[in-house]
Specification:
Length: about 475
C-alpha cells in the first residue's frame, strides 16, 4: 500500500454540508447489507459528529470481488473521492468505481493497523493510524447503544440532528400518514431552530416549497386548536405498539392531551421544505407521564413565564436585543404587539390584521420577469412565510408590492429577493447547488375575503411593509 500523499478526512457533520463535492471520509460501519446476487452492497456509516442518523454508502460492481467484504458491524472504512448526495431528505454517499476507493479495518482497540481489504485505487497515508485509533477509542468508550442511552431530555429549541435524545412533550394529536405510519404532533412550548433548504439550483427554481410535508395534511379544524406559541413537531413512528393506539384513543375519543417522554428519537430536516421531522425507530419507546412529573412541571412553568413576557411571541432566536429586521413596517400604528401566524390562523374573525415576525422561505413565481401581471404590469407575487408556529401564503400586489421592493430594476429586485430568501449558491461537479437560510423580518398582514358568500374564501396580503435599504 503506497503512502505518497495526504488526505483531508471530513467529519460526517461537515460532509453533509459538502453536497456535490468530492471528499474523503473515515467512519465506523453501523450496518451493512448486500443485494442482487451480491453485486450491490449498502453500508451505514457514523462517527462521533453524526452518530444517530449516519450516512448511507452504496456500492455496485459487476464483480463481487470489487465490493467491500465487511466482516462485522463496527468495522471501520476509509473512503476517498466520494460524493454526498441528498435523496428524499436522506444523505447518501455516491461511490464511483472510476474515481473512488476504499479500505476496511478491523474494529476494536487491539485490531491491526493495516486494512484487511483495499480497493485497487486506494492509497493509504500515515494519517490512517491517527483516525483509526480515534474511531476505535470512540467506538469502545463513548458510543452508546440505543437501549442504554440516558441523556438529559432535550427541548425542541435544542434538538440535535446529530444525536439520539429523549424529548419531554405534550401529544396534541395522533394520526396516520398515507404510508400507514403513525404521526405524533408534539409540543413543549419552545421553538425549533430555523430550518434550511438545499438542493440543485435548477430544482429550486422549478419547484415550490410546501406548507406541510406530511400526507395527508392535517385538517384546519384540528391544527387551529394547537397552541399559538411554540412549535408543533411531527414525529413519525416506525413501530405500531399498543401504547400508540392508547394515545390515539385517549386523544381522539376523550379529547385529552397527554404529556409523554419520547425515548431514543432522532430528528432530521426535510431538505426541500426545511421543516424539522422527528423519527422514532422501532427501538424507541413512549412513556406516558403524569402532570406531577418534575420535567412536565418544568416545561409548564417555563411556558407560563414565556407567556407573561412582553416578547414571548418573538421566535426563540429573534429576541429584541438581537433582532435586526431587514424590513420596516409603517402600518397598523395602533397595533404594538406582535402575533404569531398561529394566532391569526386560529382567529375565526375576518378580515383582521396582525404584525408578525417571519421568514420568507419561498417566492412564487421564482423568476423576476414573471412577477408582473401581463395586463397592467403591476407586481403579483406570492410569499411563503414561516414562523415557529406555522406556514402561510401571503400575497404582494399593486402599490403594496411597489412599496415593498422600492425599486423596479431587475438587478435590484434580484438582489433583494436573494436577501429575503437568504440565498447562497455554489458550484459543484454536478452543477449549481442552492441553500436558503432566510433572515427574520417584520411583516404587516391583512386577512381579506376573496369574495363574499357561504365559502368566504380568504387570503393574506402583505401591506405597509418595505425592505430596508440599509439592512
Amino acid at each position: 500500500m503506497n503512502t505518497e500523499r495526504e488526505y483531508l478526512y471530513l467529519p460526517l457533520s461537515s460532509a453533509i454540508k459538502s453536497v456535490g463535492v468530492k471528499i474523503h471520509l473515515f467512519a465506523l460501519i453501523s450496518h451493512f447489507t448486500s443485494h442482487s446476487n451480491d453485486l450491490f452492497v449498502e453500508l451505514k456509516i457514523i462517527d462521533e459528529t453524526y452518530p444517530a442518523v449516519g450516512i448511507t454508502v452504496e456500492f455496485c460492481a459487476e464483480n463481487p470481488a470489487k465490493l467491500p467484504n465487511v466482516k462485522s458491524a463496527h468495522d471501520i472504512i476509509s473512503l476517498h473521492h466520494v460524493t454526498v448526495k441528498i435523496v428524499d431528505g436522506k444523505y447518501y454517499c455516491k461511490y464511483d468505481n472510476k474515481y473512488s476507493s476504499f479500505a476496511l479495518f478491523e474494529e476494536g482497540e487491539n485490531g491491526k493497523l493495516e486494512p484487511y481489504q483495499v480497493s485497487a485505487k486506494y492509497t493509504g497515508t500515515e494519517q490512517n493510524t491517527i483516525y483509526l485509533k480515534k474511531l476505535r477509542y470512540w467506538s469502545y468508550t463513548e458510543r452508546r447503544t440505543y437501549q442504554d442511552l440516558t441523556e438529559q431530555p432535550l427541548k425542541l429549541m435544542k434538538i440535535d440532528p446529530f444525536a439520539i435524545f429523549d424529548l419531554i412533550c405534550k401529544v396534541l394529536h395522533v394520526s396516520k400518514s398515507c404510508n400507514e405510519e403513525w404521526i405524533l404532533y408534539v409540543w413543549d412550548g419552545t421553538d425549533v431552530p430555523p430550518g434550511l433548504q438545499w438542493r440543485k439550483s435548477v430544482e429550486m427554481e422549478n419547484s415550490q416549497v410546501p406548507l406541510h410535508f406530511e400526507e395527508p395534511n392535517l385538517p384546519n379544524d384540528i391544527s387551529c386548536t394547537f397552541p399559538c406559541v411554540g412549535t408543533v413537531l411531527r414525529v413519525f413512528l416506525k413501530a405500531n405498539s399498543m401504547a400508540i393506539r392508547k394515545l390515539h384513543d385517549n386523544i381522539i375519543n376523550n379529547n385529552s392531551k397527554v404529556w409523554v417522554r419520547v425515548c431514543n428519537m432522532t430528528c432530521t430536516m426535510h431538505e426541500t421544505s426545511g421543516i424539522w421531522k422527528g423519527i422514532l425507530e422501532p427501538f424507541g419507546k413512549i412513556n406516558i407521564l403524569s402532570d406531577e412529573d418534575k420535567f412536565v412541571q418544568d416545561r409548564v412553568r417555563e411556558f407560563e413565564n414565556r407567556m407573561v413576557n412582553p416578547y414571548g411571541r418573538f421566535p426563540w432566536l429573534c429576541m429584541p436585543c438581537s433582532f435586526n429586521s431587514i424590513t420596516v413596517t409603517d402600518y397598523f400604528p395602533s397595533i404594538f404587539c406582535y402575533s404569531t401566524l398561529m394566532d391569526s390562523l386560529s382567529n375565526k374573525q375576518a378580515p383582521h390584521e396582525i404584525k408578525c415576525i417571519a421568514r420568507v422561505v419561498d417566492i412564487h413565481p421564482y423568476k423576476i420577469e414573471k412577477w408582473r401581471s401581463p395586463f397592467d404590469a403591476h407586481f403579483e407575487i406570492r410569499l411563503t412565510l414561516e414562523d415557529p408556529t406555522a406556514r402561510i401564503h401571503a400575497y404582494l400586489a399593486g402599490q403594496d408590492a411597489e412599496k415593498f421592493f422600492g425599486d423596479k430594476s431587475d438587478e435590484i429586485l434580484k438582489e433583494r429577493m436573494k436577501k429575503l430568501l437568504g440565498l447562497v449558491e455554489w458550484e459543484t461537479d454536478e452543477g449549481s447547488i442552492s441553500m436558503r437560510d432566510p433572515p427574520w423580518a417584520a411583516f404587516c398582514l391583512k386577512l381579506c375575503y376573496l369574495h363574499e358568500g357561504p365559502s368566504k374564501c380568504t387570503k393574506y396580503m402583505v401591506v405597509g411593509t418595505r425592505i430596508s435599504v440599509l439592512s
